[in-house]
Fold:
Amino acid sequence: MKTELRLMDVTDATAESLVGLSDNLISNEFDAGVAKTMVYNEMSDIPVSSRTELDTLKENMMVLKDLSDRLTFLSKEVKYLMNLK
Structure:
């Protein structure tokens, strides 16, 4: 019995649009009118600070882009290893 393994193609239009959106949000500085929130970060030098929701979104989009890049690399490596056998 042959088992077929299909890998998710992470370079589709959806992933590219997310990366484009994160680059756009990171490059633009439009903080006008956004409410600030008090944030507690135990490991920081200043544990209590204020951060806008837009700053939080930018940080989350950077993390998402990093994880997307790692997933793309891992997917390519698994495809390569599957082709060796």
Notes: DSSP finds two helices and two strands in the chain. The longest helix spans residues 53-84. The beta strands are 36-40, 48-52. The two ends are 17 Å apart (CA to CA).
